[in-house]
Amino acid sequence: MRKTLFFIPFVFFLVLGAIFYLQLGKNTQYMPSALVGNKVPDFKLVSLTTDQLVTQNDLPSRPYLINFWGTWCPACHLEHPFLIELADQGIPILGIDYKDNKSRAEQWLAQKGNPYESVLMDEMGHFGVDMGVTGAPETFVVDGSGLIVYRHQGVINTENWPVIKGYLK
Amino acid sequence: MLPEIGQFSLILSLFFALSLALVPLIGYWARNRLLLEMAQPLTLIMSTLVLVSFVILSVAFITDDFSVLYVSQNSNSQLPIWYKFSAVWGGHEGSLLLWVFILSGWCSAVALKVRTLPENVGPVVLAVLGIVSTGFLSFLIFTSSPFVRLLPDIPMDGGDLNPLLQDFGLIVHPPVLYMGYVGFSVAFAFAVTALITGNLNASWARWARPWTACSWAFLTLGITLGSWWAYYELGWGGWWFWDPVENASFMPWLAGTALLHSLAVTEKRGVFKSWTVLLAIFTFSLSLLGAFLVRSGVLTSVHSFAADPTRGIFILVLLIVLVGGSLLLYAIRAAQVKSSVSFGLTGREAWLLLNNILLTVLTLTVLLGTLYPLIFDALDLGKISVGAPYFNSVFTPVALLLIVFMGIGPLSKWHNTPLSVIVGPCLLSMVLSGLLATVLVLWCGFGLLAWVSFTVVFWVVCLSFFDWFSKVSAGSKGIIPRARQLPRNYYGMLLAHLGIVVTLVGIVLVSINSHEAMLRLSPGDSASIAGYEFHFDRLEQIKGPNYVADRAQFTVFKAGDPDPVAVLRPEKRMFTTRQQVMTEAALDAGFTRDLYLSLGEKLDGAAWGVRIYVKSFVRWIWLGGIMMMLGGLLAALDKRYQRRAEE
């Protein structure tokens, strides 16, 4: 009996090792969202390019991405070139300029190119709160029937794109 | 050509590490003296080869050799030269090389002292260190070589060092921290040697003690530096965030603290033998766990390196071989050990047992909080995060209890403590500390938590003084000659214990007596916070070596005093190469308070969001850390250990 006690640390460690193994390579950027399976919440936002009021009725009817970004966000600088690549492949992206200022956003898009079908200004971040966004960049996938199917936190790049693309249908 | 030599030298050192892992062990089992004696030269050659690689990588950084992929990713021709050097450990590959370099440094230190150990112990210790080195060297060479070339398309310039790391704190923080982490591998090697040779008597504890104290001192300083760096660089004004990677450095510290105390009992009284061995294994395992968490991408943290699943698998295998192997050896061998010495309930053994239990509880608390989200996710129960509220509410009471007992422990005597020795000073201290705390709390208008904390603080200070005084006043000689006769070990302990208390004062005051404000200010405006007047003088554009910045100038006055207290210049830096914005907070440090100013977002017109903190006694947190570090070094340098070396 006493002898088996000394095996406790070893067994404890093996269990921990198994958990680590299960966790390795898991996608830590996938974030669950209460909105998955629901429609995009109602909103009324001003378009950056046309200054028109845009609501949920103006959303595209084919599958698209909603991308939260801001000129204040360093990771968005990293993500931007890849979004341009996606736009070149014909993937529709709705940009939400999150907690940002208009003139700087315009300057950014003029300098770096505009990958977005349209860009909406969410200066106060209210729409971000409705969508449960915790930071930028964050991207949601909306399917053809208008339902949110996936939420991704952090930069989209060549490595994680295949997973996100799988939801885009 | 040089980078190839660096790579070659690493591969050679792996061969020597492998031989170091095998030859002395074969010599031990075959009872061959010649093979045992090979351990020292093998260690020294391995270490020299690692040194060569490290120097070559540093040279590649300093000479802007962008044909080396790692250099081109982490440096830039415009980077100031000291950052070029510290960029060596700015990414995963180089920091792993630093880790291996420091490991080989510890190995050589042991190798140079090997003659002070019995002739069949020293080589086995080195062989265990050889196994550890083999593991890390193969991790470095097979998954993360820093010498990979970008040929033939050599980039014109590099991608620059992460701006967060362009800072003095980051030049020194990783090496010091690694000195601590890696240093525990020496205690681990002694413990495993004790298991292999079956000599689980008091002697291994005596050999391991100075090494453990020394690495503990480094780890303490490393954590202190990290906390200080986070405070002034991250722009949040916090000094500890319970981030998974901070926890990863804190857990080995807690376990190492327990080990330090448990080694003392094992050395002096020959009890807790198997427990001390287990603690040594735990402490080192927790260091390895830290490395795993940072480098495998299983947890997201501000410290994480770019995640790579192959690296994760490799380091997990390394973890399983080293930790699993040693725990299995422990399970088989430690069961044979019998503790024969018994001790009384009031003896110092019992107090140190209490210390160990509480420290273990604290370690497990942090471990559970850190790994809980991971376990939850692995079992597909969803994603959760465990934040500061959990740690603060679970950790604080146990830690306070530990500090209360920390006051009494040093008074106790081995085996049995006569009650008269403890009761008198305790009663007196209790009254005295309660009174002092009451006066202080009433005078400053603090609450109950502050009262409890300050009572504990005064309690430890009083008891430490009583203990010292009773030691120096006994006997006929004067106080000063007797005080000088007390061993360094004792003063080390005293200093470290008082360091804990100083840190506690800092923590308590900074959390209850700090003022902060988020303000919207334009040049010409001023704001008044906690008796200080902050005047926004002007805003200017400046250009640094590899960034441009908006720099504000604030003059701070104390209310009613026309002379300025300080001029603060917080900056918002835009690093041109990486297009990354960094907040550079401005600080006026003081013994009793820090004025802390950081620029937030630029608002419309000339207005800026400005965050202002007045933090009281925040310096004490790190002052305490430095005292603990000095205490650890003092203990490691005790004359007892040196005398043994000369024998």
From TrEMBL, chain A:
It is a single-pass membrane protein. This is Thiol:disulfide interchange protein. GO terms for cellular component: outer membrane-bounded periplasmic space; plasma membrane. Keywords: Cytochrome c-type biogenesis, Disulfide bond, Membrane, Redox-active center, Transmembrane, Transmembrane helix. PANTHER family: THIOL:DISULFIDE INTERCHANGE PROTEIN DSBE. InterPro entries: Periplasmic_diS_OxRdtase_DsbE (IPR004799), Redoxin (IPR013740), Thioredoxin-like_sf (IPR036249), Thioredoxin_CS (IPR017937), Thioredoxin_domain (IPR013766), Thioredoxin_ResA/DsbE_sf (IPR050553). Residues 34-169 form the Thioredoxin domain. Gene3D superfamilies: Glutaredoxin (3.40.30.10). NCBIfam families: dsbE (TIGR00385). Belongs to the thioredoxin family. DsbE subfamily. One of its GO terms (biological process) is cytochrome complex assembly. It comes from the Bacteria. Its main location: membrane. Signal peptide: none annotated. It is found in: Cell inner membrane. The chain crosses the membrane at residues 6-24. One of its GO terms (molecular function) is disulfide oxidoreductase activity.
TrEMBL record, chain B:
One of its GO terms (molecular function) is heme transmembrane transporter activity. GO terms for cellular component: plasma membrane. It comes from the Bacteria. Its main location: membrane. Keywords: Cell inner membrane, Cell membrane, Cytochrome c-type biogenesis, Lyase, Membrane, Transmembrane, Transmembrane helix. It is a multi-pass membrane protein. The keyword Cell membrane applies. The keyword Membrane applies. GO terms for biological process: cytochrome complex assembly. Residues 89-296 form the Cytochrome c assembly protein domain. It is found in: Cell inner membrane. The chain crosses the membrane at residues 6-30, 42-62, 96-114, 121-142, 178-198, 210-230, 250-266, 275-293, 313-332, 353-375, 387-409, 421-443, 449-469, 490-512, 617-637. InterPro entries: CcmF_C (IPR032523), Cyt_c_assembly (IPR002541), Cyt_c_biogenesis (IPR003567), Cyt_c_biogenesis_CcmF (IPR003568). Residues 316-639 form the Cytochrome c-type biogenesis protein CcmF C-terminal domain. Belongs to the CcmF/CycK/Ccl1/NrfE/CcsA family. Required for the biogenesis of c-type cytochromes. Possible subunit of a heme lyase. This is Heme lyase subunit CcmF. It comes from Marinomonas profundimaris.
